[in-house]
Specification:
The strands form two sheets. A six-stranded antiparallel sheet has the order 1-10-11-12-8-9, with helices on both faces. It has ten helices and twelve strands. Helix 5 runs parallel beside helix 6. The two termini are 38 Å apart. The radius of gyration is 22 Å and the shape is elongated. With 387 residues, the chain is of the alpha/beta class. The protein binds guanosine-5'-triphosphate. The site of guanosine-5'-triphosphate has 21 residues, from helix 3. GTPase involved in activation of the TORC1 signaling pathway, which promotes growth and represses autophagy in nutrient-rich conditions. It catalyses: GTP + H2O = GDP + phosphate + H(+). Keywords: GTP-binding, Hydrolase, Membrane, Nucleotide-binding. This is GTP-binding protein.
C-alpha cells in the first residue's frame, strides 16, 4: 500500500462513553457491539412505515411470513448433524477462528442467538439429529417458523448428500402449505479442499436433484437459492450477505443510491458493509466478484485495528450545530499491486461503513468531490432508515 489518508476517531462504548481499550478481537466483535453512532433499522415498524413527512419512495415489503411483525426475523440453520451449522454461526457472528470449530460440540437443543446490528435478527441453530419440520406432534412448529426470515439448509459437500437432500425436500414440501413464501437458502458447505471440477459438478447435481424432486411432487419454481460455502474463506460471508439482503425491504433504494454514487464519482464498485459481521447489506448493481468483496472485507479489519490503536475519544455531539468534532472514520489508500486501484472507506452510521473500489481515474485529488457525494449519500441513508 502507498499514499494513505486516514482519520480514525475512536469508537466509544455506548454505555460508559469511554474509548475502547485494547480488547481482543473476539471481545470487540461480541454481538453487544461497542461501536458508536446510531441504530437505524432496529425497529421493524419504523423500517416499514418511516415517520417522515416525505412520501416514502422505497419498497416497503413485510418480512416473509411475519404474522404479527413485532418480533425479530429469524434465520434458521438446519441440516444433517456435523454439516457445519454451529461452525457457520460461530465464525460469522462470533468471529471464532475457523480452525477452532473443530472443538465445537454437537448441538443438542435449539441454540438461539440475537444479533444487534443495523437490523436486529436472530440465528437459531438446530440440532442436526432432530427433524423439526416433520415432527409437528413433538414440537410447536408454528412458534419455530412464525417469524422466519430465511431457512438456511446446510449440506455437507464432503459427505454423502442424498439423505440431506431428501430431508430438505421433505421439509420444503411440509412447510409449503403453511408457509409458502419461506426463503430457502441451501448452503452447499465445506467446499474447501474440493477440486474446482468436482465442486461445480457436485453443486450442479445437488441443484438438479432438489429441483427435480420438488417438481416431481408438484412444487414448481420453489423459492430455493443455492450457494457454495466454506468457513475457511469469504464465501460464507458472501452467502450470508445475499441471504440478509433479501430481508431488507429498502434494498432497491440502497442499490439505486449506490449506483448513483458510483456514476457520479467514477467508483468501480461500492459496498455498504455491516462492520460487525462484515456482511454487505447492499452493493451497486454492477457485477460482484469475490476478489473485490475480499479486499473490502480485509480493509475493514485493517481500519478497525488501526482505529483501536490510533483512535481518539470523540467529544459529545452537540445539538447546537456548533463544532462537534464528531467526524466519521474515513480512509483512502492506494493499492499499488492491484493496478493502481484506490480503496475508500467512510463510516456511515453506528453499524454501517461504505467501501468503494476506484481505479486510476479517481485519484486522491478528487477526494473533495467524493467526500461531498458520500456526504449526500449519508444524508439519503438517514431518509431511507429514519430512526
Ligand atoms: N473443511 C471444513 N470443515 C468444516 C467447515 N465448517 C465446519 N466444518 C467442520 O465440521 C465439523 C462439524 O461442525 P459443527 O458446526 O459442529 O456441525 P453442526 O452441523 O453444528 O453439527 P450438530 O451440532 O451435530 O448438528 C467441525 O469439525 C467443523 O470444524 C468448512 O467449511 N470446511
Amino acid at each position: 500500500m502507498a499514499s494513505s489518508y486516514l482519520t480514525v476517531p475512536a469508537r466509544r462504548h455506548p454505555e460508559n462513553g469511554q474509548g475502547q481499550s485494547n480488547d481482543s478481537r473476539s471481545r470487540r466483535f461480541k454481538p453487544a457491539a461497542q461501536l458508536t453512532l446510531l441504530r437505524y433499522l432496529q425497529d421493524l415498524q419504523d423500517a416499514e412505515v418511516p415517520p417522515s413527512p416525505v412520501q416514502p419512495r422505497f419498497h416497503t415489503g413485510r418480512m416473509p411470513n411475519s404474522k404479527d411483525g413485532d418480533d425479530k426475523p429469524r434465520l434458521l440453520l438446519m441440516g444433517q448433524k456435523r454439516s457445519g451449522k454451529s461452525s457457520i454461526s460461530s465464525v460469522v457472528f462470533h468471529k471464532l477462528p475457523p480452525s477452532e470449530t473443530l472443538y465445537i460440540e454437537t448441538t443438542t437443543r435449539i441454540k438461539k442467538d440475537s444479533m444487534h446490528s443495523f437490523m436486529d435478527f436472530q440465528i437459531w441453530d438446530f440440532p442436526g439429529q432432530v427433524d423439526f419440520a416433520n415432527a409437528a406432534n413433538l414440537f410447536d412448529v408454528d412458534s419455530i417458523f412464525n417469524e422466519i426470515g430465511a431457512l438456511i439448509w446446510v449440506i455437507d459437500a464432503q459427505d454423502d448428500y442424498f439423505d440431506a437432500i431428501a430431508r430438505l425436500n421433505a421439509t420444503i414440501l411440509n412447510l409449503q402449505t403453511t408457509y409458502p413464501n419461506i426463503n430457502v437458502e441451501v448452503f452447499v458447505h465445506k467446499v474447501d479442499g474440493l477440486s474446482e471440477d468436482y465442486k461445480s459438478d457436485l453443486f450442479r447435481d445437488i441443484i438438479q436433484r432438489v429441483q427435480d424432486d420438488l417438481s416431481d411432487n408438484g412444487y414448481e419454481n420453489a423459492p430455493v437459492s443455492f450457494y457454495q460455502t466454506s468457513i475457511y474463506d469469504h464465501s460464507i460471508f458472501e452467502a450470508f450477505s445475499k441471504v440478509i439482503q433479501k430481508l431488507i425491504p429498502q434494498l432497491p433504494t440502497l442499490e439505486a443510491l449506490l449506483n448513483s454514487l458510483c456514476a457520479n464519482c467514477r467508483i468501480q464498485k461500492a459496498y455498504l458493509f455491516d462492520v460487525l459481521s462484515k456482511i454487505y447489506i447492499a452493493t451497486d448493481t454492477s457485477p460482484t466478484d469475490m476478489a473485490s468483496y475480499e479486499i473490502c472485507s480485509d480493509y475493514i479489519d485493517v481500519i478497525v485495528d488501526i482505529s483501536e490503536i490510533y483512535g481518539w475519544d470523540r467529544p459529545e455531539e452537540e445539538d447546537s450545530g456548533g463544532e462537534s468534532g464528531n467526524q466519521d472514520a474515513e480512509s483512502l489508500i492506494r493499492l499499488e499491486k492491484k493496478g493502481n486501484n484506490y480503496l475508500y472507506l467512510r463510516e456511515i452510521n453506528k453499524y454501517l461503513a461504505l467501501i468503494c473500489l476506484m481505479s486510476e481515474d479517481s485519484p486522491a485529488e478528487k477526494k473533495a468531490l467524493i467526500d461531498y457525494n458520500v456526504g449526500v449519500f449519508q444524508e439519503a441513508m438517514k431518509q431511507v432508515f429514519p430512526r
